[in-house]
Design brief:
With 128 residues, the chain is of the alpha+beta class. Helices cover 16% and strands 33% of the residues. It has one helix at 2-21, and strands spanning 46-55, 59-63, 71-74, 80-83, 86-88, 98-105, 111-118. The chain has a five-stranded mixed beta barrel with strand order 1-2-3-7-6.
Amino acid sequence: MPRIIAACALAALLTPALLFSQYGYGRRVPGSYGTANPGGYSGPAVTFQGNLKMLGKKELRIEVASEEQGITFRVSRKTHFLKDGKEIKLADVKLGTVVAVDAIRDPDQKFSAMNVVVSPPQPKPAEP
């Protein structure tokens, strides 16, 4: 009788271990699961033009004529500040300046500034 109880207890302990070993728990194949950072947005860049209202090391905000509120963009080390085709420093840009911002959408749907062009040329009106 004690042998039967011991055999049943041993079987009860080993059965879950054998079952779970068949399903590969703990084995991950690289690239088979979603990643925390899925990479950059591969869509087209969009250009916004307006007056610079706020400029910091991580964000800039412009006021666009067609929007009631401004648009905020992320600034990173990949953001280039340009004036007359030459790269300038962030500190050289003054508030209230007209800027054109080339931006892309991040996976979290926020805009990241790629290029900030200070005093961009005004678009020419279409001739009739």
